[in-house]
Amino acid sequence: MNFHILTLFPEMVESALMTSITGRAAAEGKISIRAVNIRDFSNDRHKKVDDYPYGGGAGMLMQAQPVFDAYESVMAGIPDISRKRVIYVTPQGRPFTQSMAEELAENEHLILLCGHYEGVDERVLEEIVTDNISIGDYVLTGGELAAMVIVDAVARLVPNVLHNGDSAHTESFHGNLLEYPQYSRPEEWRGRHVPDVLLSGNQREIDRWRRREAEARTAERRPDLYERYLALQACEEFLLKDKLHHMDMIELIRRGRARLLARQGEEILLEDTESHMLFHTMPGADRKEHAENSVCNRPGILCAAHRICLHQEAFVPLLAGMGYRQEAVCLQSVCTRKEQLPIRGLYGADGQPVNGLSVRFDGVCATAFLDGEEAGSVRLQRDGSIGELEVLPQYRRRRVASALETCLCNQLIQKGMTPYGRIPEENEAALALQESLGLHIARGRVYVMS
Length: 450
Ligand code: ADE
Prior knowledge:
Blueprint: E1 2-7, H1 10-17, H2 20-27, E2 32-37, E3 50-51, E4 61-62, H3 64-76, E5 84-95, H4 98-104, E6 109-114, H5 122-128, E7 131-134, H6 144-155, E8 188-189, E9 192-193, H7 196-199, H8 203-221, H9 223-239, H10 247-254, E10 258-264, E11 267-272, E12 278-281, H11 288-292, E13 308-310, H12 316-321, E14 326-334, E15 357-361, E16 365-370, E17 373-380, E18 386-391, H13 400-414, E19 420-424, H14 428-436, E20 440-449
Parallel strand pairs: 1-2, 1-6, 5-6, 5-7, 12-13
Antiparallel strand pairs: 3-4, 8-9, 10-11, 11-12, 13-20, 14-19, 14-20, 15-16, 16-17, 17-18
Helix pairs in contact: 1-6, 3-5, 8-9, 9-10
Bound molecules: adenine.
């Protein structure tokens, strides 16, 4: 991830961002941060970059030419411009949120333009800017602090910028809850004690206490977030009535990555905030009228979606009419066990590795090796399901697939998740594999449209 900051105060930006975690990440080559001095691009003899606004009014404006030339100098160094965004930080922008940070983190290049004086000539903004972002309803003296806030929030989401792999997902805003209170040594400080439960060693009780505290804190400090949290809890409770068929949606909620786009009685439409895939259900819907009155018909609700997973066939023609194409009809397989699965094929009865088979997991993909040669892989897909299981032909019938899937399930179980996958209904071999591993196959079909 490369950050380019167009500014009149490069030293301000660099001195702040080149320290602490962002500085370390830049030194380690995980991100790059470059401040570009707009003044260097002024054509004026005195390096002037501002002028009076046409039509009169208070203050000066940044002129179009130096801003544009500074931008062009950055673009000249970016050969592939497909994954770039140009952000103008302004109090008139969209309010910055964690989900915007997550979305921005998917780009290769972020170019941030910091305004000064009374603003920037509109014409250059029209020419180059893709996003207007505000960091809050207050006015700063310039855009630098706002740009630094955005760089910091995005940089920490870049893989391996935070050294503790899990911490990006356990902090405030995860699943619409603020973080629970934390305590460190000593046990007693100025007469205040660490809550007994945290010293109990009972992890189940600790988790329960933390959840209650997070809920209470959110209800008190952020009633807006708490309302969203309660709405998703109500959805989860409803979806649990047909648990296997809805495990994809339940897991989105439990993993804190679901956004409730619409709920109308028994109809639910969720967005996965990471893959942006949509998930829809209306249990029992089997008639045309159901689809006609569906939330999917609300203007604009489906426009940005790349893919949608429907849980009832009745909605397939509706989506087809909107231009969606049916990708697959699948059955969901769900691993309901809380304990680790026994890894058949990897270890013998004596617990020793057999067959020269080993599996490596990099956080997303599990890869199997047989006698040192890559034999196959399976991955945790962007939407949270297990998929893309593949075993090279010469290594088939040697339990590679079962070892791969078991390893990935165990990784997820260890993190407190319920592993699940979508298996095309005609793929009998894959369905048989699921059952042999003790996974449950949901009876209801799901329809993936894109
Ligand atoms: N520039 C000045 N104030 C700002 C704000 N609140 N957000 C983003 N950019 C700004």
